[in-house]
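Researcher: Let's run the pair from yesterday's discussion. Sequence first, then tokens, for each.
Model: Starting with the first of the pair.
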Amino acid sequence: MGAFARATVGWFDRDAKDYRRIDIAEQCEVLSLIGDIAMDKDSPVAHVHAVLGLSDATVRGGHLLAGDVWPTLEVIVQEAPGHLVKTARPEVGLALIDLDRCPPASASPLS
């Protein structure tokens, strides 16, 4: 799929209600990249998880927070029949998908 010259992934710390940053300061291969795009307030927001391979055959993974693509990154985006909407959940520390607010595809703000 591609590679990053450097990247940052995160591990969600439920006690801190925030991500612990894991910086990867070297070239890494993208072994897996999966997620979704959902509406959060009035903007689409990507929620992506990555598994990244390092030169010594170890891996790092988590929520993709940042990445500098080099030399390329091939991503396939597939539209789902419905659209996702997130709602802030302060007790969790995240905005989570709210199925009660997800409109049918024909009524989506992304159309």
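Model: Moving on to the second of the pair.
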Amino acid sequence: MKRAFTASVWLEDDWFVAQCLEVDVASQGESEEQALAGLREALELHHQEPRATIAPKVTTFEVEVGGA
């Protein structure tokens, strides 16, 4: 499925920055085209379905946080 997004692009020092206005995702490149290509890739990754991974170990522990 394709979806349209809006990007704000500006020159910051020697780099072009492209920031999506609908989603908090940004990229940069040496040219405006590179910055937009990076933003396109970042948005594709951002919207991918999560993949199953090894579940993290969850544990409890105690910490001394006050005077005796």
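Researcher: Give me one sentence on the second I can quote.
Model: The helical segments are 32-46.
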